Structure formats: C-alpha cells, structure tokens
Amino acid sequence: MIHDFGIVWSERALLLSGLANTAILSALSAVAALLLGFLLAPALMSKKSVVSWTARGFVDGMRCVPFLLFAYIVYYGFPTFGVRLDNWTTGLAALTIYNAAYMAEILRGAWVAQPREPIEAGIAFGFSGIRLFRRIILPPLLLSAGPVIGNQMIQIIKDSAFLTIIALPELTHAASSIQSRHYVPFAAFITAVFLYWGLCLVIEAGVSTIGRVADARR
Amino acid sequence: MAASSKVLDVAGVSKRFGDLQVLSDVSLTVDKGETVCVLGPSGSGKSTLLRCINWLEQPDAGQIFLNGSRVGINDAGTVMSDRDLSDIRTRIGMVFQHFALWPHLTVLQNLMEAPVQVQRRPKAEVRDEALALLAKVGLSDKRDAFPAKLSGGQKQRVGIARALAMRPDLLLFDEPTSALDPELVGEVLVVMRDLAREGMTMVIVTHEMGFAREAATRVLFMDHGRAVETGTPERFFANPETERAQQFLQRYAGDTAAMRR
Questions:
Q1: Is the pTM of this model over 0.95?
Q2: Which has the least CB within 10 A, A7, B58, B67, B252?
Q3: What is the ipTM of this complex?
C-alpha cells in the first residue's frame, strides 16, 4: 500500500498539473457563471414574458440535464454547428453554461428576498443605473447569497471531474492516467479525493469569511 | 422664477394605480422654513403625494417644482434622464417609515454614501459634516455600528442624519414614527422638532397629532386622494372646516382617550 502511494508520489508532476487545471477551470468557470447569472437573473424576473420564458426554459432545462450528458452534447454538438474549440475551452464552456443556470436561480432568489426599501432609498438619494446596482443592490445581495454561491462553486469543482470524458487533463483525468499506467487505483483516486477536498476547504474558508462579514451586519 | 421663498410647488397632481385614483388634483406650496404636516386616514394618498414629490412615483398629471425648476419633466416636455432626476433628488432628503438604511454600511458610511458617491463632494469634508450630524442626533458613539445593531429609534435618527448629510433644500418624512415602539417615538420627534425650530423646510406625513399641533407651521388634511383642507395647526385642530376633518379628529381623540383608559 505504501508502495502504491510511492508510485503516485513519483507521478506528482502529473497530479499537480491536473490539480492546477481543475483549480483554474473551476475558478474561471465560477466567475463566468456568476457573471452570466447576473445577466440571466434579471431576465428571469423580466416583465416581458418572452424574455422571462426563454430564461426560465434555459434555467430549468440545464437543471434537469445531468452534467455528464451536457458535456457530451457540447463536445459533439459544437462542431456540428461549426464551432471548433479545443477540449479545454469546450470543457470551460460546458461547465460555465451549465452552472450559469444555477447561479441565475440563486441570485434571483436572493434578489427577490432583498427588502425593497433600502433600494428605494438609494433611488431617492440620487443613485441610478450601474451606480445603484454596484453600491446599493449588489453588496447586500452578495452577502446574503454568498454561502449558496460558495456551495455552487464546490459543485463546479466536482462537476469538472466529469470533463475527464472529453480528455481534459484535469485532476480526475490525471489520477485515472496514473492508475491505468501503474495499476494503483486506490492510491491514485484517494490522493485525488484529498486534493479535491483541499480545494473545497479553500472555498469554505472564503464562504466563512463572507459569513462573518454578513453576520456583523445582521 | 422671481426671487421667491417658495421651495416646493405641487400643482394639481393626480395619480392612479390601476382602477384606484390615489391622488386627485392635489396642490400644495411650501415656503422656505415651513414645516407642513400632512394628515389624514390611511389610504388617503399622503405617502403617494410624498413619493410623487421626488418622483419615486411618476404622477399622471400635474406639475411639481423645486425652487422653481420642474421635477421629472425637462424643457422638451419629456421625462427627465436618470442623471437629471438624480441631481434633483439629491436636493430632496427623504426619511422612510421603515428607515431603509443600507444594511451593508456602518452608520457613518450610511451618512457619507450619497454625498460622496452621488454628489461627488470631498470625502474629508463630508466626513466632518457627517460626524457633526451624528452628534446632533445623539449617536456619535454608534458611528461604526451596523444598522442591524440599532434600536428603531436610533435607526430613524440615523435616517434623518443621512438625509441631512446631503444638505437638502427640502426634507420629506414618510410616517417616520409609525414603525417604532411607542417608547421610542419621542426621541425621533425631538430631533424633528429641533429641525423645525432651526428652519429646515419639511413635509411630514404623520399620525402624531400632538407633534403636528406643536411643530407644524401648517397642516394639510387629505382624504380619498384629495387635499381637503389646509391651515395653521391652531385653526385646524380647534375649528376644522370640513365635516371629514371633524370626523377624523374626533376619531383620533376617541382613540387617544381609549388608549389612556
């Protein structure tokens, strides 16, 4: 057993590059999904039924499709529509589009739960447009949605493991390569699990910081 | 406009929500230094009138002037841009029934937010003024607290200080004490009475008859979306002209008597 972990250690460069890919992929996709979520959330709440129905259809659709299937669809589907991307970009796109739906729903929920009066006070005090959003609406929204957004980021990290099926060299892919090369499945996968766990701990540290900031204001 | 002491001029404002006519042809002028208390039963349109003044609600008809310039509609006769509207709104302070403080900012930051971010005044100057205002409303020790940690009365005093921090020409109060526990009403009314004495121009929607009688320079009585009666508090409370005002005051006197029993 110790010997198996020794083999995994000897392949640490591969594992670390997998970890780096997973971290970068998840971080980029989390930020992009959050930004897309901010565009989608108002669409979900739009008074124009064409807009709200379209957004609702997309969000509900994404939430009902298993990510593994969606990754396949993007991987094989994009080229049929003439969009050719490398595996890495395809994976990023799939992860982002899929999670944008969740982010939009999270933000919509937090948005609806915000009290109306402080926003109205912002308008009455001369805030409007972007400045109103950035200074008055956004901060309390992020504070209240922070923990759920953090949860979704953990989900993104875990979903990224599926991208091994499109040969994206992320952490699971690296662990899988090591096990097939040396036949040390347990050691390879358990090491990957701990590395995933480490990533999630980083997210949770961030979430608890947001939680502390929010608690001081509650 | 000629040199006039008229700060606010509301001329024939009407507003309808769906089938409900909330305001019908309401007019009101407020001179510099006046404290006008708007009284009337719930649903009489008082708050909507207030919200039309700074265009939080867009009136269907009528005109509103602040220091002689039209609010909400520009010279071309179309609805103002957000930027122009913002300029006017910074000259009208507003105090809300449920305080509406910004929960993510400290007390001091609440006071400084609009003057720094919207009015673009120098931070140091705004900060000095904000600290002086907090001292004035008796909350210097709370400057670094978040609104959630304050009592209702403290929140509303911050709300008033926040409005004053913009150096407004006019202050609007939308039932400032209605959400407060009875024992906290007094501390807010004291601040408002001081402002009235100092000559701040104010329009106050309130159910505090005692305050209106004592601090108002003029009373406007509204019912069913109409401005029914206006006059000095002495005259209004002693000899209301209209039957509706008489009924309203009798009901209030009855309630007060019932409460004392």
A1: no
A2: B58
A3: 0.92
